[in-house]
Amino acid sequence: MATRKTSYTYYCLHCHRSYRAKSSRSQYCSGACRAKASRAAHGAIVDDQAAASERRNATKSAQRFERVCSQCGEPFTANGKQGKRLYCGDKCKKRAYLAAHRTEKELR
């Protein structure tokens, strides 16, 4: 009766070391080598995306927006990521929220 071979000897596609594998479809000696090979293959794309994201965030934070508070009418400066702010601070934001909800309750 023939016995089945249960382990195979291969060379890792990333680090080129020999290793024993249970599967004949194995290509890497470990999960870490598989991850490193994947990052190496796709690294240029990931690096370009990270650099573009950093540039976008740097330009946004450098921008300044002169706005007027919707609640009190006072001018204020909003940074790039806060460009859509409507209120100068938390007090005006809370007053606007309460005013909106009071009118809804009165209409009911």
Structural classification: alpha+beta
Terminal residue distance: 87 Å
Please tell me the overall pLDDT.
80
Q: How many DSSP-defined strands?
A: 4
Uncertain segments = none
Instruction: Give the proportion of residues in helices.
Output: 40-55%
Count of helical regions: 2
What's the helix and strand layout?
Blueprint: E1 8-11, E2 18-21, H1 31-62, E3 64-68, E4 75-79, H2 90-107
Antiparallel strand pairs: 1-2, 3-4
Structure commentary:
It is a single chain. With 108 residues, the protein is of the alpha+beta class. It has 2 domains: 7-41, no CATH class; 64-107, no CATH class. Helices cover 46% and strands 17% of the residues. It has 2 helices and 4 strands, in the order ββαββα. It has helices at residues 31-62, 90-107, and strands at residues 8-11, 18-21, 64-68, 75-79. The chain has a two-stranded antiparallel ribbon. The longest helix is centred in the middle third of the chain and has 32 residues, at 31-62.
